[in-house]
């Protein structure tokens, strides 16, 4: 996988992600999506929406406001409990999330495990059985046990809000500040992550509001509105995508952890007692969605939570292998009836469903799938970026984005800027642009234009040459194999549709 610094600089150089307000030296952990990034992000969002809403007759989508009545956040538990444990290093004055310091410590042990696995794979060759090796090799088993013990203790201390024990764990593990190398830590404190703001013109009458820290609550407060107006029958889901805001203690690692980010969430309402079944089903369905993009089964794993949030009776993350290790990409949570019951209590309004089959009223249970759009962007982008050495020894940088997500699907390139080739190329652009995101490029030698499209992740290049004028064919170049084939202009539309239509990607998921 490509070096992380290279990923960040490629994202900027090729118009995917810019630091926010860069002319003022940027704003910490806030980023803007540029021309190609906005298109990639939209394509990821569409891919999710199609899979979740369009392909499920019992899931509908909404778009709730970012501002919500402030009582929402009392009911949801965010005012009291949306905290992260924070710790300061007294020498460097740097602030850290105490749980992340411990998790990073474990990630380092994990790297050791990976090294052992790689060594053994080399030694045993074809006959290597990874699962058997990791479950029997004493060194690997020892490392894994150490990780398990540490994470279990961290989970339990956080659950009990025993912050003194979190500090004790950091001290016992001799974790040092990555900046100063010092182990001179403050006590661990809780820090609320919600951003406050005010609504109203005059200071006296202004109302204190929060920027939503998750999109889910916009779904819960609308549960009955949607159920009634959509005549929805349980089980059914409500989906939405939108911005969320968290005053993260430490926002590092580019767009992995931002203070303003976008979520794609779906709340699935089920009869009480059936939540475990649905939880398992959604875990499986969501993993299939990820695998449909072809980014390698080995790059995903489930992580079942030890520490459950106040609302959950089961929770798991789908983790992805980012350039800095396996990290959470998506959460699947069995949220019980906590949210709806709590909104009932705080609002005094009933949020119940009459189940004609059971012939009773109840507050439904909820299974949630929640994925960060920006994190999905980073997963895709970092996986896709490769440096390749070609047969002739030259190097190319290629962004092997799943073609269905690529910002530009086809670039049309006239071989030269004369002899009527640009006219025919424009004609092709004009006919394909109704179905695909197409670009046109006539600057520089064609080889350099191919390289530029490779770096932008464009899966196909169409080159118009003199032969095209005579027989109405063009060359079609594949980004990944770099193979070129001659194809009739009249067949382009059908060819591209077969490769790029969401249908062919999603049908097995
Ligand atoms: P973490 O443990 O990384 O802080 P979380 O468990 O608090 O994340 P959830 O509240 O479950 O995250 O949010 C669901 C999804 O939203 C996460 O899986 C992640 O993809 C995304 N997400 C959460 N916080 C951020 C952030 N600060 N920046 C970008 N994406 C985020």
Folded structure, characterized:
- This protein is globular.
- 33% of the residues are buried.
- The longest helix has 27 residues, at 98-124.
- The chain has 3 domains: 1-82 and 193-393, 2-Layer Sandwich (BirA Bifunctional Protein, domain 2); 83-186, no CATH class; 408-506, Rossmann fold.
- With 509 residues, the chain is α+β, with helices and mostly antiparallel strands.
- The mean pLDDT is 95.
- The site of adenosine-5'-triphosphate has 16 residues, from strand 10, strand 13, strand 16 and helix 13.
- Adenosine-5'-triphosphate binds next to strand 10, strand 13, strand 16 and helix 13.
End-to-end span in angstroms?
A: 26 Å
Ligand identities: adenosine-5'-triphosphate
Strand content: 15-25%
Helix content: 25-40%
User: How many strand elements?
Assistant: 23
What do the pLDDT scores average to?
95
Return the CATH architecture of the largest domain: 2-Layer Sandwich
Radius of gyration: 26 Å
Query: For the record, what is the CATH homologous superfamily label of the largest domain?
Result: Bira Bifunctional Protein, Domain 2
Class by helix and strand content?
A: alpha+beta
* CATH class designation of the largest domain: Alpha Beta
Number of domains: 3
CATH topology group of the largest domain: BirA Bifunctional Protein, domain 2
Categorize the overall geometry: globular
> Helix tally?
18
């Amino acid at each position: 996988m490509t070096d992380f610094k290279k990923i960040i600089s490629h994202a900027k150089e090729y118009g995917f992600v810019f630091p926010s307000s860069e002319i003022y030296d940027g704003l910490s952990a806030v980023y803007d999506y540029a021309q190609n990034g906005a298109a990639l992000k939209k394509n990821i969002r569409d891919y999710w929406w199609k899979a979740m809403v369009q392909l499920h007759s019992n899931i509908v989508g909404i778009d709730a406001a970012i501002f919500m009545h402030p009582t929402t956040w009392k009911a949801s538990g965010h005012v009291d409990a949306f905290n992260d444990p924070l710790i300061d290093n007294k020498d460097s004055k740097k602030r850290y999330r105490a749980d992340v310091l411990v998790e990073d410590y474990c990630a380092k042990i994990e790297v050791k495990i990976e090294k052992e696995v790689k060594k053994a794979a080399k030694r045993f060759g074809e006959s290597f059985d990874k699962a058997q090796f990791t479950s029997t090799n004493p060194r690997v088993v020892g490392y894994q046990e150490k990780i398990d013990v540490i994470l279990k203790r961290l989970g339990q201390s956080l659950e009990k809000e025993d912050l003194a024990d979190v500090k004790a764990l950091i001290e016992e593990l001799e974790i040092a500040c990555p900046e100063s190398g010092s182990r001179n830590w403050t006590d661990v404190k809780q820090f609320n992550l919600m951003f406050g703001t005010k609504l109203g013109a005059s200071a006296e009458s202004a109302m204190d509001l929060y920027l939503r820290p998750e999109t889910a609550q916009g779904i819960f407060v609308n549960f009955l509105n949607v159920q009634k107006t959509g005549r929805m029958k349980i089980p059914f889901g409500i989906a939405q995508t939108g911005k969320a805001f968290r005053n993260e203690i430490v926002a590092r690692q580019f767009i992995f952890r931002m203070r303003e980010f976008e979520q794609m969430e779906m709340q699935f309402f089920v009869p009480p007692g059936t939540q475990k079944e649905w939880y398992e089903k959604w875990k499986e369905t969501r993993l299939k969605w990820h695998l449909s993009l072809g980014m390698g089964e080995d790059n995903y794993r489930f992580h079942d939570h030890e520490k459950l949030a106040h609302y959950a009776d089961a929770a798991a993350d789908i983790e992805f292998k980012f350039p800095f290790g396996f990290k959470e990409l998506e959460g699947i949570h069995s949220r019980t009836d906590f949210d709806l019951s709590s909104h009932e209590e705080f609002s005094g309004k009933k949020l119940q469903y009459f189940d004609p089959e059971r012939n009773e009223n109840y507050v439904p249970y909820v299974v949630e799938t929640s994925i960060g759009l920006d994190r999905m962007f980073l997963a895709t982008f970092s996986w896709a970026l490769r440096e390749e050495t070609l047969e002739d020894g030259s190097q190319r940088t290629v962004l092997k984005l799943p073609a269905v997500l690529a910002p530009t699907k086809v670039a049309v390139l006239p071989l030269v800027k004369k002899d009527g080739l640009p006219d025919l190329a424009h004609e092709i652009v004009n006919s394909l642009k109704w179905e695909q995101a197409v670009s046109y490029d006539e600057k520089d030698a064609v080889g350099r234009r191919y390289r530029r499209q490779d770096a932008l992740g464009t899966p196909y290049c169409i080159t118009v040459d003199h032969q095209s004028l005579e027989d109405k064919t063009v060359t079609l170049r594949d980004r990944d194999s770099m193979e070129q084939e001659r194809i009739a202009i009249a067949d382009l539309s059908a060819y591209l549709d077969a490769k790029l239509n969401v249908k062919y990607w999603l049908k097995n998921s």
